[in-house]
Give the backbone structure.
Amino acid sequence: MDLYQHDKLNLGRPAIRLFRLEKGRRSQIFCEIFQAYLDDRGCGVPYEALSLTWGSPELTKDIRVNGKRLPVTDNLHQALLHLRQQDRDRILWIDAVCIDQGNLRERGYQVQQMGDIYRKADQWLEEEATKYACSDWHPEDVRWANIWRDMDGQVALGFHSDLEDRQRQGLETLLGHEWFTRAWILQEVASANAARVCCGTKSVSTRYFGLLPGWLTVVPSPHCRAVVDMMPGISRQHSWWAGRRNLFTLLRQFGHSKATEPRDIIYALCGISTDARGPNVLTPDYAMPTRELMRKFTKLLFRCDMTGVPGWRLVSIRDLAMRVEQLNQIAILVHIENKDKTLCMSLINRETKLSMLKAAGAYARLRGSSMLSEVLRRHRIVLRRKDTAEEIFRDSG
């Protein structure tokens, strides 16, 4: 049987591909991939957006797409089996198959539309792996009734004490899943208007899922907690997400996210930040060399060209995340030297406690600056020592 090949996507309009999962019970999965549009002239097809970890590319199973063969990862194959309905087709958007991953131009174009794709989806589905204890429970198992009152997501408020330990352990395992560490889920979670977390054939609304760690006294990792706080529901309205979402804050929260392609982290952060829009937008371009992308990103982050700072050298996105506060302080001095008070104050007002202003090699020339004195006095910054950018990166490898 011929191998499925993606048809050319219309890049002149906000085009996407949608995935029709045909109804049925057979072990073989039959699907159709077709083109649709996100603009007002589009076909208006309602769809759900699926988010999952792709899994190992070495472990694949074939599905039938438009009468041809398409290998997909075992993770995706299992998800499709769980999501397939017996009585009607289901329309999905799945990045692994709806984007021609080998076409860099199309890939960048689709990444640019990611926010709209998830915002316009009827529902966002986060499919977890099925290795958890709950995946082995029979649908009639009484334990389901103690977690959810029904499949509409009504959470049972009272838990039987003899089940609490198992529930807590199951939630800890769930929150420890690799999915919560990935870079690209950030834009997916942030853009969703309604969402469900799926485990096997069961699911729960994120409106309640975000409250479960508190109810069961489970403490997720900082990265996982930040992701849960972004999910549609009460958590999103009252967490850090309701406050500042600038690149500086996001880099500190998610700079260590996992990604097969490191550039994904940069594009994901830019896609959900409040200060990387309009004239400051960094358009996804996977043909751009990583070094050039890092230069543009740091310029966007610090509002200046850091390559002129003594000892500066371009680093990886993870190195940048580790030292973002130190570099922010260096950038403050750059703006002081350039007498740009507006940019200087914008960097100072970020979510950081400056007890020490770390200087670049330019500090000696700035010692007598009245602007520097004003900044130090207003923000009670104590300058105790000076560090050059070279010293900051001494141990960066």
About this structure: The chain has 20 helices and nine strands. Confidence is low (pLDDT under 50) at residues 129-145, 147-160, 352-367, 378-397.
